[in-house]
Amino acid sequence: MSITGAFIRALIAPLWAMKEKSPYLQYIKTIEHMHCLPIEKAREEQLQRLRTIVRHAYAQSDYYHERFDESGITPDKIEKLSDLQYLPLLTKDDIRANKERMTAHNIPKTNLVQKKTSGSTGVSVELYMDKDSGEWKRAVTIVYDRWAGWDIGERVGAIWGNPECYQNWRMYLRNMLLTRHCYLDTLKMDEQSMLFYHSTLLKKKPTILFGHAHSLFLFARFMEQKGLSDIKPKGIISTCMVLHEFERETIERVFGCRVTNRYGCEEVSLIACECTEGNMHINCDTLIVEFIRDDKPVPAGEPGSIVVTDLTNYGMPMIRYKVGDVGILSATTSCACGCTYPIIESLEGRVADYVVTPNGSYISGISLTENFAMYLPGVKQMQIVQERIDFLVFRIVKGELFTEQTVQTVNHLAHERFGDQMNWQIEYADSIQSEKSGKYRFCISKLPNPFS
């Protein structure tokens, strides 16, 4: 660990937390203490928090009061964790249709933070999170990121889209003094940008690299092709997409360190993280995670839809939320790393192809979701299909707010992202078919796989 990082952990981080009136440092201690306890203790804590948030949702949220009554469920019937299966499921469509009714009467609007997901499934969702829930999510992320060799104050090389630190001077100052991220924008992964980022990493010497799985792989492969082998972080965190084994092998070979695979979604933050033994432990600190098929729990070893209950968001309770991914719960119940939390055997979903532009640049699908899905009012669902090197199809399901301005925005974004040599057309559909796994693919390329 660096001297600068140690100084930030000892002085700047506590002072900044005091300035923000943030309890996240105390939450970190609570979470790390829980990791040392038997799983039974974690289950007891989960049950207590589940019963509390279910009672709260029933009493304070019009939506949940109505849904629970329709299902014939009252909070007092939740006596054990398995009783969670009797509560109604929550979908993205439910959130879009009932966002305001889902919020709690006793939480002031000034205490709510509005979030908009990037729509990696082609469907963007707006929701609220109370500020304290955000602090829990911040703490959880830090605790699990430590598994990769990082800690507060250590520099991060982030291969990511839409860097937030450049939005205003306050965020720039925060990044310079506390979070210390240096970015390679995944929308600009051309040779010149990657060479410049390589030189930046040589100067900054980040403790870890962090980014989308495919983007990390693309940068690693670029370095290998250029004969560059001088970036040696302590660890790497991969997130947002499926991390394929060939990608992991390339990344670890080029950078000479272990990749920590992380799984989550913007609605509830971190869901699971890979430990030093290579097992992906479920976050039992702030969530309850279920695996279901036909609305019923599936046993370990069988694939099921991932359903998550957030135990911290009282502002807009997220109870039994269908994430949209499919996973398999492992039958293994112990791990040499010491963490007693359940293990996810495998994950499906989070697969986003790259668009290849006529000038040879690669743009990751996950970055395109952050740029299209988030800025297109009136689009209920969208899919980008690359038919040829110079031709794209934008498939759009119209929403109620769709106007001619929406079309103009699509054309503007397409020209801005793909350049003058790219052609495209817009097609309208009543719906977009999902994959067998249940996931929608926002971006599909019909070109040969650039990563094979």
Task: Walk me through the structure.
- It is a single chain.
- 35% of the residues lie in helices and 25% in strands.
- It is built from twelve helices and 20 strands.
- The chain is α/β, with parallel strands linked by helices and 452 residues long.
- The strands form four sheets. Strands 4-3-5-6-7-8-9-14-13-12-10-11 form a twelve-stranded mixed sheet, with helices on both faces. It has a four-stranded mixed sheet with strand order 19-18-17-20, covered by helices on one side.
- Helix 2 (24-34) crosses helix 6 and helix 3 crosses helix 4 (62-71).
- It has helices spanning 3-20, 24-34, 39-60, 62-71, 92-102, 131-145, 169-179, 191-204, 213-225, 245-255, 365-372, 404-418; strands at 112-116, 126-130, 156-160, 181-185, 208-212, 235-239, 259-265, 269-274, 280-282, 287-293, 296-297, 303-310, 321-329, 343-348, 354-356, 362-364, 379-388, 391-398, 423-428, 443-445.
- The model has no long low-confidence stretch (mean pLDDT 89).
- The chain starts with a helix and ends in a 7-residue tail after the last strand.
- It has two domains: 1-347, Rossmann fold, CATH 3.40.50; 354-445, GMP Synthetase, Chain A, domain 3 (2-Layer Sandwich).
